Amino acid sequence: MTTAWPTAGAQRARVPTIVAAVDSLARSAVADGLTPALGVAIVMDGAVVYREAFGYADVTAGIRADRRTLWYVASTSKMFTGVAVALLASRGAVQPTAPIAALLPDVVWHPSVNARALTLADFLAHTHGLADTALVMSAAYTGAVPERRWPALLGLAPASGARDLVYGNLGYNVAAMVIDRLRPEGWKQFVHDALFGPIGMQHTYARVSGLPPARIARPHRLLGDGRYRTEPFAKVDATMNAAGGHLATLDDLARWTIVQMDSGRLEGRTVVAPEAVALAQQSLAAHTRDAARRFAFFDRDGWGMGWDLGRYEGDRMIGRFGAYHSFRSHVSFLPDRRVGVIAMSTGGAGTALTDIIAALVYDLAAGRADALPRATARVQELHVRMRSARTAAMARDSAERARGLTPRRVPTERHVGHYGREGYGVLTIVERRGRLAYRWGALQGTLLPVDTSGARFETLRAGGRVMVEFSRSPGGTSAHLVFDDMLLPRVPSTRDGRPPVQSR
User: Fold this and answer.
1) The whole model's pTM is what?
2) In this structure, are residues 145 and 425 in contact, taking their beta carbons and an 8 Å threshold?
3) If you ran DSSP here, which 8-state letter would residue 311 be given?
4) Which overall architecture, per CATH, does domain 412-491 show?
């Protein structure tokens, strides 16, 4: 399709036109089953011009999405952490160019890491070059190692040998450690008091406990007949981390976006230091890998403090995206056009819908004549993809039922026990009615056999498929399992059958 580039005289579509176009697209997308739930907000010229939720936050329980719904923002949390660091920097409390070894003097780094040559900015820009599994596994999935002990896990993260921009979570977990050292209240409370409070974000939380479960949007699984089934929300307080760990309403995210777009101002007053907002949006590193330079319809140039920095059709764009299980979050704005979009979804084709909606708003704001036909064509492509997804879901469901009945050559009781290693906590395998189940901190699930060997299984982790394989040494004297490429040796139980306490 040929893009109709705006001419010098092209004018922004009127607000009612933009609102009507987005509302129609979002309503029809949910009604047609492209996603079970969708939340959208649009901010323009310092005000919220649209805010609406569609579908069901919990399909199985019949709970509709509305303005009170708390959406899990996943990796979009990095923007909160990044701006918090920028705020501390604007106050002179920290220098982003300071060596991380000086900022975290008690950390014993992996022997391959020269922490004196790495700065806080390197961690914020994903150019630190550390290969981590242990810390991120606990922070994002298991919570098996408490956050107060995460600094010790940095000793298990070797240098990867690459120093270009490679996106990950570790940098923002390290940034939170720096905030913890500078602020006695800790990073969560500092972000709340210094940012959420002044902005008026009264319904943004870095926890799950104490919140009404009915307000939290749930992940959903697409079934072969096109319906959706609610799945458990696997996040707990221990896994709500600085790289991905907040629940928020559309209203709060809209207020946040206005402040970031309008240099710290909201409703006629300064609520966040303009220097901090500007600092967070300055480029720390450029993308050097071709695969990372394009995301959906958007060009990505590099990274600031918690922000993706790039362009949409030539317009400067600042944004942050997140995905976990079936959740998808999109927060972005075009500062020069003073328009921003918040779009949240919980399954199906919602991932693509969030980006289509943002692109539609931006095309209308730029006065592009083909804005509506372009968005319509993209939605039609989603319908085609969803037909294929339903077929795949039908085959998947059938295969899972068949695997559950597959005979096993090796008695499952041989696998029952505890598995773990330093920095990872303990994964416990039990047998329930002839099937294996596991618990690893907050993570739990059933193991389905993938063949008749009795050694290879499959499970789901945050909606994604993970292979689990059991094996023994040639002499049969030791055993271990491999969980998604992580090797966990069997560990002895205590006398009362409980797993041993890990030293780290």
Assistant:
1) 0.93
2) yes
3) E
4) Beta Barrel (2.40)
